[in-house]
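User: Hey, my collaborator sent me this sequence without any context and asked if I could get a structure. I don't really work with proteins. Can you help?
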Amino acid sequence: MVPQSAVIRDWLGEPPYVFAASDIRRLREPNSADMEFIDYVAFEKVPRQILGISELRQLAQQSKRFNGAVTVLHPYEQDDCELLRKLVTNDEIERLFVVIWSPSDMVRNWLDGMCARNLDTGSVHDAPDSVQLEAAKCMVDEQYNGLSTGNGKAAVVQLIRAFAEGGYLLEKEPWLKAFFAAGGEFRHAESISKLISEMKKGTRHRVQQRYRLEILSILQGRASAVSADFPG
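Assistant: No problem. I've predicted the 3D structure and written it out in structure-token form, which is a compact way to encode the shape of the chain:
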């Protein structure tokens, strides 16, 4: 943990360090892993501030930008993750470091979609597949009415089916990565995750046709046009 702490401090910059936790009360528990992490990073009791993730909402409400780095410890509540997404989307935090419990956490898919840097490896996540990104934009266009029922569900199911029939793997991670990159919200990402799980189990969802049968080739054309407009 000592070498990792040095890498983290180097990225965070000069103190004071700001840490945001889902539940501050758990930091007071004996042998708290989060408190141990904080002590390793903010060693020798350097200036630090510890607050709840929900308190970051004040930044959004006041439309002020925090010109520093915030370390968020294991966000898992949907509202907390959505708040982080909005703060980043609106450029209200200069730098954000997120500590996650598991690669399967939904927040990890969001970080991948944002092409975040992994401080452990030093690598930056690749951008999502350009054609899946175009499909994800279609899903985002439907999320105002939800993606678990009605037209939203029909759009998600038909798009994922078309891609699977076209040779794309029926896996959650690349779809969620593309969805977040397109501006998708966490609560709707959960709907996409659930639908893909059901499809992998063999569920055949009965939905209305929302797109033409050649939707995959149409989206491939869109992705090629975007690539031509913004090469590299």
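In plain terms: DSSP finds ten helices and four strands in the chain. You can pass these tokens on to your collaborator as they are.
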